[in-house]
Amino acid sequence: MHSGLERLFRPASVAVVGATERAGSYGHQALVNLAALGYPGEVWGVNPRRGSVLGHPCVPTVADLPVAVDAVVVAIPAAGVASVVDQAGARGCGGAVVLSAGFGEVELGEALQRDLVAASERHGLPVCGPNGNGIVAMHARAALWGDALAPREPGPVALVSQSGNVAVNALNSRRGLRFHTVIAGGNQAVLGAADYLEFL
User: Fold this and answer.
1) How far is CA 104 from CA 101, 111, 114, 121, 133, in A?
2) Residue 59, helix vs strand vs coil
């Protein structure tokens, strides 16, 4: 279904929806991680209550982004996510990583997950997640990632995990695995392990 994962895994521009300076939140950590890896591309925040976040320009909605970014990191409550995915698809963005939880992993979130999948399908927008840690592309110095992350020398190893904890522990391992790409796909509502493996 999704051959076009290039923009998501080698993004030249990233927007973080739910960008904030509140330490400990996904929207803050995602921005900190991009800086930690020395991400060379454009970074935008999306938050209607801010004009800038951690030195990055901030716009009210994805529709307001001045460029169709390659990757959209979504770090807002589950109820608003399908609308953001819809906007990202309509805007021509390359793909989305949904860090938010509260979807198919809980009974009350099943309808929200269906809405998310429908929004993705309307635009053919690849989505990693929801309820996942995201993507770390060490070779591209791009982190679309909700957990604390330390820069490491990239190498030839890829890890595709459903579990965020497995991926976090692998990234923090001192065994010198030298990762190229790490993916923690969570619910895999749109993209699954087979899609990631085929792309890699």
Assistant:
1) 9, 8, 8, 17, 16
2) strand
Residue 70 main-chain phi, psi, to 5 deg: -70, -40
Report how far residue 112's alpha carbon sits from residue 55's, in angstroms, rounded to the nearest whole number: 33
Q: pLDDT digits over 123-161, tens only?
A: 999 999 999 999 999 999 999 999 999 888 999 999 999
Q: Is the pTM of this model over 0.90?
A: yes
Could you write out the three-class secondary structure of 109-166?
HHHHHHHHHHHHHHHCCCEECCCCCEEEEHHHCEEEECCCCCCCCCCCEEEEECCHHH
CA angle centred on 118, ends 102 and 77, rounded to 5°:
25
